[in-house]
Amino acid sequence: VISGMTWQEFFRVRIAEPLGMRSTTFNLIGLNRNPNVAGGARSTAEDYARFLTMLLQGGIWFGKHILSEQAVSQIEQDQAATSTIAVTPYTAVVSLLPSTSRARPGLGMWREETDPSTGILLIASCPGTYGFTPWIDHRLNLVGVLSMEYDLAKAAYAIMRVRQLVPQAIAAGLRFKDVPTTSWAFAAVTDLSARGLVTGYEDGKFHPDNAVTRAEYAKLVCTALGVEPDTVTSDPFRDVSAAHWASGYVAAAVRKGWLTGYPGGVFEPENPVSTAEVLAAIARSQSWNDTATLPYADVQSDYWAYAFIEACFTRGIIRNPDPGIESGGKLNPEGHCTRAQACVLLSRLLSLQS
């Protein structure tokens, strides 16, 4: 109504075309009538996977906001919470579903599994007709769509088995004993490990909560973005000799303008890299200059990295809420960036690029 477009036209212009959903409609092709929105869309597995991926990424598709984070959050909220209904002269408190119900309705989806301590949505699905079953797994950072033509009984069994086997298959390839499939950073650590960008320690662990040093991050951001280390013949900094194991990566990251040194000609390679420095390097590497209103109480407009954090927020590198990255509406930009956090932030960047 506000846009002046019909629903069908609005959906096509604002959602379907930006996502490349070429085979999705609320009407049968060739029929000119009001769409039955409540009846659901007619779509393909490929199209629907694009839509689910956008939701998984907080409403972002290749760096562009298709839906706001607030809209995605509203879609994922429990729509059957306890409500108060007043009918004069009586008032009743009712629950549309028992509080013990495992599956709760979101907006157009089912909240299948939530974190019991935080209530954060882990798995959502929206089953359709004839065994068409899309789902989102926030924990494993994946989406799935099963489109089947079997009778409903066979389809239900096949769907159940596939959804059981996917996490098992991922867990079978688990690389690090201290990053289980239930870890908030599992998908990102697995992603960067599979790309050969990060490795574990001799004890078979990843130590995800260890701080990343500035030298380590120089190497990580360069290798992630395909930048070879510079050939170093002289000391890049007073505290980074040409013989330092990361001198070539430090020199390359500084030459690119992604990282900078400190007054006095030092780089402090063994100091932990801050979250702000990590985000600044990401934004600089992509020449981003997007602006946004940041939701973090501890990042003020006069902060040195404000513009870089703005750009990363706009592109979905950081989000709100963003468990594991921010806490209680605070980003802690001067805090040490952990190995898990660095993996999540760079994995999101690589996902945008691909």
SS content category? alpha+beta
Per DSSP, what share of the residues sits in E-state strands of 2 or more residues?
5-15%
Question: Strand sequence of the main sheet, in spatial order?
Answer: 5-6-7-8-9
Number of domains: 3
Low-confidence stretches: none
3D shape: globular
- Roughly what percent helix? 25-40%
How confident is the prediction overall: mean pLDDT? 87
- Describe the largest sheet: 5 strands, antiparallel
Describe the structure.
By secondary structure, the protein is an alpha+beta fold. It has 3 domains: about 1-40, no CATH class; about 45-170, no CATH class; about 185-354, no CATH class. Helices cover about 35% and strands about 10% of the residues. Helix 5 (about 185-195) packs across helix 10 and helix 6 packs across helix 7. The longest helix has 21 residues, at about 150-170. The radius of gyration is 24 Å and the shape is globular.
